[in-house]
Amino acid sequence: MTSVRRIIIDGYNVIRTNPSGSRIELAGGGAAARQWLVDLCRRAMRPQEQWHIIFDGDGGGEAGDSSGAQLSVRFAAPLTADALIRDMAADALATGIDCLIVSSDGEVRAHGCALQDSGSFYDYLLRRGGKKAASPPDRAAEIIDKLLAYLSECGHIKKGVTLSAELRDALGELLRYFGAEKIKPQKIARDAEQLLREGMQLSPSPDTEKSVFRNMKHFFEKHAG
User: Fold this and answer.
1) 167 in the same domain as 101
2) Strand, helix or coil at 100?
3) Please, are residues 154 and 202 in contact by the beta-carbon 8 Å criterion?
4) Are residues 49 and 76 in the same domain?
């Protein structure tokens, strides 16, 4: 029979030391980031394992079984997450349960309990969940959204305008190529303006003073690279 194993996870430490987790928390808040981590853990659990994700602060916890494993989400208040993790590790060791603490914070160490850093644990989650390790962040979508907002502020496109899927994909590929090749902002602005004019209305048209080009060049000087 497989022995029981307890995995105790420092939730915010995993989220905030990971680029994907940090971006999700920044864009969608703590609830979205916590759900991202819970979903990763659910896919990675194996029978006879007890997974406990611990977060600082107050909140509603949850517990349940999945494929013969147990998952609980707990908020540590009035304790700190570090203190609760240490208490749970001590309890596991006292009852003869194999224990792993997941955190890059050395303060959560417990004698007799294994410690895994958050970065390698994230890779472990991806392998167990059947996913490849994440590639470096793709900033193209972020830059496109900022570019549209800037062009709207400058009066070159109507507020709230959206790109077609085909135009967004083409612009994204263009920006990825420019980023990889370290193309100068002037070249990026020229080619991006041409691509946008082929798929949407930019004002003024004709642009005798090249105001769109100058503003796009200014934008890419700030955001490219």
Assistant:
1) no
2) strand
3) no
4) yes
C-beta of residue 134 within 8 angstroms of C-beta of residue 24: no
Q: 69-95 pLDDT, tens per residue? A: 899 999 999 999 999 999 999 999 898
Please say which residue of 100, 128, 156 terminates a domain.
128
CB 175 within 8 A of CB 148: no
For residue 71, the domain's CATH number is 3.40.50
Range of the domain at 203: 140-223
Angle value at C-alpha 205, between 202 and 211, nearest 5 degrees: 75
Could you give the CA distance from residue 37 to residue 29 in angstroms, rounded to a whole number? Answer: 13
What does the block give as tokens for 96?
């003869």
pTM as predicted:
0.57
Rounded-to-10 torsion of CA 10, 14, 17, 20: -160
Q: Is residue 155 within 8 Å of 203, Cβ to Cβ?
A: yes
Residue 133 lies in a domain: no
